[in-house]
Design a protein that fits this description.
Blueprint lengths: L8 E13 L6 E13 L3 E5 L6 H8 L7 E6 L2 E2 L5 H11 E5 L10 H6 L8 H17 L15 H13 L5 E5 L7 H18 L2 E5 L3 H5 L3 E6 L2 E4 L1
Helix pairs in contact: 5-6
Length: 235
């Protein structure tokens, strides 16, 4: 296992809390209780913990899919808690990649079309062209050069997850978030996907955060952090 990089933090969470209204609506339920975290550029971290402890909530806040109740979230020095929804959407599209347990591919689109979906929201034509030029080499890199015009229904589960990984990388994000990325895969495909994520982390210096219940995957990260009772701590 390599040592964590020593560069200035790419990602910082400062005293992040998250509360939800209870089912009855009369009181608030606390999920995160003052979570703080620094991640260096290129670092890879696993977040583990019991089901329902808030791991996905934390990942959604880091990825700007959800907002914290209080605290700060900084990406490359920018305080994302100060941005409006439109600004956050741009950050999400250009700087953050997501890989989920379910691949969320569009069944009517080909592999290449699915990969290019995140580029459609970019108003900059030159960036769209650059992303389009990256698509085929990235698909070849993950062993899908001969699947460009297949639809998701014609792919195996492992192949669909590899398409989802390329889609997450197509806009050149600084941060890759993976929520149980191997949870729906058999052992062989899970190991292959884990190797792919680590290789891409090293090759592209992308900061990688993986939420997982898989001990084998967690042990491959630079650090393993456990979320329990709303607090995050080194395991």
């Amino acid at each position: 296992m390599s040592s964590p990089p020593t560069s200035a933090p790419l990602l910082q969470l400062k005293d992040v809390t998250k509360q939800y209204a209870s089912a009855a609506g009369a009181e608030r339920v606390s999920v995160l209780l003052g979570v703080s975290l620094d991640l260096a550029r290129g670092e890879r971290v696993a977040i583990v913990g019991p089901s329902g402890c808030g791991k996905s909530t934390l990942l959604n806040i880091i990825g700007t899919l959800d907002r914290a109740t209080s605290g700060q979230l900084l990406l490359d020095g920018e305080d994302l808690s100060r941005l409006d929804d439109l600004q956050l959407a741009r950050v999400r599209n250009q700087q953050v990649g997501f890989v989920f347990q379910s691949h969320h591919l569009l069944p009517q689109c080909t592999v290449l079309e699915n990969v290019l979906v995140p580029t459609l929201a970019d108003p900059d034509a030159s960036r769209r062209r650059a992303a389009g030029e990256r698509a085929q080499p990235l698909l070849a890199r993950v062993g899908l050069a001969d699947r460009l015009h297949h639809r998701p229904g014609q792919l195996s589960g492992g192949e669909r997850q590899r398409v989802a990984v390329v889609r997450a990388l197509i806009n050149g994000p600084k941060l890759l978030l993976a929520d149980e990325p191997t949870g729906a895969l058999d052992r062989h495909n899970a190991d292959a996907l884990a190797t792919l994520l680590l290789d891409l982390n090293r090759e592209q210096n992308i900061t990688l955060i993986v939420v997982t219940h898989a001990p084998d995957l967690a042990r491959k990260m630079d650090r393993v952090l456990e979320l329990r009772d709303g607090q995050l701590a080194a395991q």
